[in-house]
Sequence to fold (381 residues):
Amino acid sequence: MSDYLPEEILIEILVKLPAKSLIRATSVCKPWRSLIRSPSFISAHLSNSENQALLRRYDIHKAREHYTVFPKRGPFGIKSSELDFPFKCPIGYFRIVGSCDGLVCLSNDLFKDPSPPVILNPAIRNHVVLPKSLVNPNEPHLVVLGFGVASNVYKVVRLVYCRNDYGFIAPPQAEIFSLGTGRWRKLNGIDVRIRLLEYVWCPIFFKGFVYWIGYQRKSENNDCNSILSFHFGDEVFGEIMFPEELEREDVTSLSLAIMGESLGAITINGEIGDLRCDVWMMKDHGVNESWTRLYRIDCEGFQRVIGFWGSGEALLAVHGFELVTYNAETKLIKHVEVFGNTRSFYVGDYKESLVLLGGYRGDSGEELSRGVLEGMSLGAA
Fold:
């Protein structure tokens, strides 16, 4: 490996380097290339990476998406760095299905007939375009996606709700794509009675689960809001109930967020220009009875909650296409000079990684086929 350094010392040095430096280091010699591209090294590098936050915004004037990384330590917006994003969405901006371990799952279904979803590692500019799915009904239907990881295998779950004259039909059909196999696989025996929302579905990946907001039709004109969950390890669907106060709210007024180590729920009411927001937290994960209302956001120009920062601040989109921070205790807002399309703002977890380097797929050590790995560019910039 090296004439001067034992391999274990070399690894200890290399795992602390940023991804771009390691990509260059693969050209030093074949032993270094083999080491850096190995699943064990990629896993060690990921474990050594700093937990950060990913912010996406769409610049209306330049018609361009920006992906920015912030350290989670300290106030929001300090020491940011912009990622080199290689794609340009044909119309507007991508839907972010989810982000974890340095991977971002993208779909362009927001504004047009979608191309296949993409899993991108922006740090190393490598991506996977998912193959054609198995479930593609001819009748009108709704497709909902979720992205996550279990046992170092990254997966995309896909739900397909067919539509009749009365709305979407439950249960949906479901399938799952795994980077461990590079193929879709149908999930049978699905007993999901929760219907998800068309267009505005927004998944949250948290503690091995992906969550979506939906509703159950108890009877005609009697819907009850609920949260659909899917565990990527067991590949099982489940349900989390909202607190009674939120069960009959307009389902489109609800959203989910990660609040530190807890799942949060947000409800927005009022008229445009006079919106108010209640913030709830599930203090014991998975325990329906632990839902607690924390506080109300009532600030001028408020439009939507983007997420929550580690220090307890809420990240808000306000009039003027601006993102600000809001302190619930002092009720003060802070301008952080971040601007973009209000609906385009996204905040999620991010860790710089080498995942997808050489088609890496996890502990199995298998590699993606060249055809899947190269995929398509989706309008590469």
